[in-house]
């Protein structure tokens, strides 16, 4: 792809993920995390599926950042108001279907003359999912376009959708954005920033339940730095190196994008004795790198301590750990992803005591993966939470 082809996407990434704007979203992240804690507290002593709460939280954050408000909620925001466009359950169903279908192997792709039969039903399911996404995204775009018309000359872009619609109307843009382009970018932002973060947090909590000593060290750090009279804020995160080490170790063992996005060899190269011709599609298996015994001591063990004092970071310069990729195709949401996952893990550990359901031992907790477009847990984590902080902290808006 030429530099010109990237032109329309540069202001898009800058608009949503530049440092100053990310900082302005701190309130949104804090509110959504606190909402998740309130919901979990209400389940005290009962078995919960953590994934449900994580997906609602991460979707709430990116919806408010990118779309300007929550379009996906259980019920109308005010009594007598319009019904929600989608409920969280409906959106989760769409997201799960998206990742299943994008990671599936369709027989028709390999044997074209069988394609019309749709033997596995994937084409039918893709069309159905596509219609649902289009219906939702059309509603979002129509609502934003209506506000632009009403405000006229006084219109100011408030979110990613506003920026994209302005770019689509710019006749001087070298690469024009169509309505479908705008919808595709919004869809990528919603999926990329919600489900991947939720999967990472779920893996982290799963590993901590399996490793009580690590969980104890994390709780001790939180009590020492934050205390038990308040929740964790983003301002606390730089003073929580062990929590950051837990996240890095989770990235190493459970990268949600196991082969990253495909790269293209721009020139002939030779790697480990293999010739890579220019134009070759290159898939980088960070899953294998994270388990390479030549790079990591006891690679199958969950040891956050390996990152204490280590200079290895996730910013794309240390090839041993590339959860967000590297180079021009690196994930632009690195800053956002780190803030959401760190803040969530820290508050989940600080706010609750975690244990497995009655009768279930640590050895019984399956860590089996399922390979889709991403690699989440095959079975959602089920756990019991018990509040460890004063009750009023969970009730704050």
- What is the CA-atom radius of gyration, in angstroms? 22 Å
Structural classification: mainly alpha
SSE pattern: HHHHEHHHHHHHHEEEEHHEEH
Through-space gap between termini: 46 Å
Shape: globular
What's the CATH architecture name?
Orthogonal Bundle
Number of strands: 7
Largest sheet: 3 strands, antiparallel
Strand content: 5-15%
Describe this structure in words.
- The protein has 15 helices and seven strands.
- The protein is mainly α and 397 residues long.
- A three-stranded antiparallel β-sheet has the order 1-7-6.
- Strand 3 (269-271) and strand 4 form a beta hairpin.
- Helix 4 (26-41) runs antiparallel to helix 5 and helix 10 packs parallel to helix 14 (334-351).
- The chain is globular and about 55 Å long.
Summarize the structure.
By secondary structure, the protein is mainly alpha-helical. The protein is built from 15 helices and 7 strands. 30% of the residues are buried.
Q: Which terms summarize this structure?
A:
Cytochrome p450, mainly alpha, 15 helices, two-stranded antiparallel sheet, 397 residues
Task: Describe the protein's topology.
Elements: H1 3-6, H2 9-17, H3 19-24, H4 26-41, E1 47-49, H5 50-67, H6 88-102, H7 107-110, H8 122-151, H9 160-168, H10 179-210, H11 212-225, H12 241-253, E2 263-264, E3 269-271, E4 274-276, E5 281-282, H13 286-290, H14 334-351, E6 352-355, E7 382-387, H15 391-395
Family: Belongs to the cytochrome P450 family.
Pfam family, one: p450
Keywords: Heme, Iron, Metal-binding, Monooxygenase, Oxidoreductase
